[in-house]
Amino acid sequence: VPYDLTVSNPTSVGIPYPGGLLAALAHEDGRSYRPEPFGLASAREAVARDCRRHGTEVDRERIGLVASTSEAYSFLFKLLCDPGDAVLAPVPSYPLLEHLAALEGVRRLSYRLGADDGWQPEPLPLADTPVRAVVAVNPNNPTGSFVHADGARRLAAACTELRAALIVDEVFLDYPLAPTATAPTLASRGEVLTFTLGGLSKSLGLPQLKLAWIVLSGPEPQVVRARERLEFIADNYLSVGTPVQLALPRLLEEAVVIRQAILERCRLNLASLHAAGSALPGLRVREPEAGWSVVLEYPGVIGEEALVLELLDRHGVAVYPGYFFDFARPGTLVLSLLPEPHVFDEGVRRLLDLLARHL
Ligand SMILES: Cc1ncc(COP(=O)(O)O)c(C=O)c1O
Questions:
Q1: Tens-place pLDDT, residues 80-93
Q2: Whose CA is closest to atom 4 on ligand 1?
Q3: Is 69 in the pocket of ligand 1 (CB under 6 A)?
């Protein structure tokens, strides 16, 4: 597709990664194998240091390394659920969650995020199935919305009522789009047993390195017990490679320039979308607070499927229809903010031309 506005792979869009970035993977100590279920202490210490950028003090003993956030979800579902139990997850949000739950024999029930209150979580305990975890994505993908204080309180209250743990996916926390946006992490919250997820796929823009983390917080006895059992699960896989763990302190130091480049790209594309979109009456750009994507609403004169297929087949532009993410409003599209600016601008131009013709 010449104009792919669905791209989520940061290594394929001309982001300049620093030369020699991966040299640290050749660390001599990588020759010997020291199996550690939660990962090497030096790597966990590096994650703890990194958490301080968001104002969180975390003991490295409360950090577990995994190969990816997807693996983190799988381990947590194994930890918290028996087959047939449920987790309560936001909609619209990251679509993989449904599969990750199903693969563990777990039901994904959903709670709806509404555009009118800035997509804030309000999980309602409606299930007759035991709910073992409530999931929040902060900031959410693809709505780009942070979980604000009220939403965080409601999440904790729902977890208390359901006697469920809280899983907070913060892989996009490093990407606030408005210069003044604050990035409140939920990792330091202590009311309920909480697992906060992050990882290199977004923080360093290198998904192929396969390193992510789980930060545990909450009431001490629950954290201690969860930690023991999670360690047992991780010990059965030992899935994080030694070279990437040894390189982690160095990689996290270098990450700042990569993040800056990705963030500038996203901000630039968002600004040009605003400029181009303002010419089309009825088009609404839902301002994202953070992340790598943006939600567009158009007057529902043509169905999402028909629009997206016409755009793809006749005009060489790929965008996501909102129904992929279960948006309630028909006439919603999701665009990635990652593409190279000339690709993004031309893709948007063709999209707007097509919409204008249908209006
Ligand atoms: C919200 C969210 N969580 C997790 C992931 C997956 O991250 P990982 O590569 O660490 O599995 C993604 C990937 O796009 C995502 O959007």
A1: 999 999 999 999 99
A2: 69
A3: yes
Our mutation pick for probing the ligand 1 site, out of 6, 12, 65, 69, counting the most ligand atoms within 8 A of Cβ, is 69
Ligand 1 atom at shortest distance from the alpha carbon of 8: 14
**Percent with pLDDT over 70 in the chain:** 99
Decide: 171 in ligand 1 pocket, CB within 6 A.
yes
- 171 alpha carbon – ligand 1 mean position (Å): 7
Mean per-residue pLDDT, 176-181: 81
Ligand 1 lined by 73 (C-beta under 6 Å): no
| pLDDT, position 126 | 67
Residues 277-305: what's their mean pLDDT? 94
CB of 185 closer than 6 angstroms to any ligand 1 atom = no
CB of 199 shorter than 6 A to ligand 1: yes
pLDDT in tens, 3-21: 999 999 999 999 999 999 9
pLDDT tens digits along 104-161: 999 999 999 999 999 999 987 666 789 999 999 999 999 999 999 999 999 999 999 9
Q: Which of 63, 93, 150, 64 is nearest to 291 (CA)?
A: 93
Would you say 301 and 359 are in contact if contact means Cβ atoms under 8 Å apart? yes
CA-derived radius of gyration, the chain = 21
